[in-house]
Design a protein that fits this description.
With about 220 residues, this protein is α/β, with parallel strands linked by helices. About 40% of the residues lie in helices and about 15% in strands.
């Protein structure tokens, strides 16, 4: 039997709205962000899930609580924090304007947005470039990122066979995970706030069933 995992990107925050880099830094959900979370909960109410995990950052925990409150069919009232599924850490670049940072890091190669940098370099090479550019040495490179994410997957794979799981996480993290396990994902396409991505864990195999959906496919 397999483990079904529904990754949900948190609702819009004020830093999202202002196009600021937001990794381990946090901002409250906007009114739209609260609606994003509630909509995801209503979509997931069609599915019986056994566990709800969330990145331990404030925006994901808030999203998970709103998601659960919007689902009349679950008796789970509180998400379980899972730090392994935190967002990528941008180090000293946290809070910077996203477009200005893209010009700084990728402009010389003609990349002027995160989408362009990821499409050109791929998610892991971009992590390494951000880490190399951080003068404080705090930003996560791809090795540190995957060491953390893999611990989360070890926890998921240890759940009982046949489990259905919701994980509330982040845009760059979900995009990296989906791109890692499927060559059909356009890495320049960022998961939308409140969108759902489904993975199936079957033994040592991981497949991406769908990505960045605002409706759950039949």
């Amino acid at each position: 039997m397999a483990i079904n995992v529904y990754f949900v990107r948190h609702g819009q925050t004020y830093l999202n709205r202002y196009n600021r880099m937001q990794g381990w830094s946090d901002a409250p959900l906007t009114e739209k962000g609260q609606a994003d979370a509630k909509r995801a909960g209503q979509l997931l109410s069609k599915i019986h899930f056994d566990y709800v995990f969330s990145s331990d950052l404030a925006r994901t925990m808030a999203t998970a609580r709103l998601l659960l409150a919007a689902d009349p069919n679950t008796n789970i009232t509180e998400p379980t924090p899972e730090p392994a599924f935190r967002e990528e850490f941008f180090g000293s670049f946290e809070g910077q304007n996203g477009a200005e940072f893209a010009d700084f890091l990728g402009g010389a190669e003609g990349y002027h947005s995160f989408a362009a940098m990821i499409a050109g370099w791929g998610p892991d090479k971009l992590k390494d470039k951000i880490a190399a550019a951080d003068q404080y040495g705090d930003a996560e490179d791809s090795i540190r990122f995957w060491e953390r994410i893999n611990k989360g997957f070890e926890h998921l794979r240890a759940l009982p066979d046949g489990s259905t799981v919701v994980v509330v996480s982040h845009g760059a993290a979900i995009r990296s995970i989906a791109s890692h396990f499927s060559d059909q994902i356009n890495p320049g396409e960022s998961p939308r706030n409140g969108s759902i991505t489904k993975l199936t864990l079957d033994g040592d195999q991981t497949s991406v069933d769908f990505y960045n959906k605002l409706e759950i496919p039949d």
